[in-house]
Amino acid sequence: MENTLSQRQVDFYRANGFCVVDGIFDAELVAKARAVVDGLLSSADLAQMAEAEPEDGSKARRIWAPTSRDELFAGIAEDTRLLDAVEQLIGPDIVLQYSKLNVKPPRVGSVVEWHQDFAFYPHTNTDLVATLIYLDDATRANACLRVVPGSHRHGLFEHESRGHFVGKVPSPAQVGLGDSAIVDCEGAAGSVVFIHPLLLHSSEKNLSDLYRRVFIPSYRAADALPVYYGPHAAHNEPTAKLVRGQASRTVRSEAGVWRLPIAQAEFNSLYQIQEGSHVADGAKSSTGYFSHEAGAEDATGDATGDAM
Ligand SMILES: O=C(O)CCC(=O)C(=O)O
Question: Which of 123, 178, 257, 267 has the most CB atoms in a 10 Å sphere around its CB?
Answer without folding.
Answer: 267
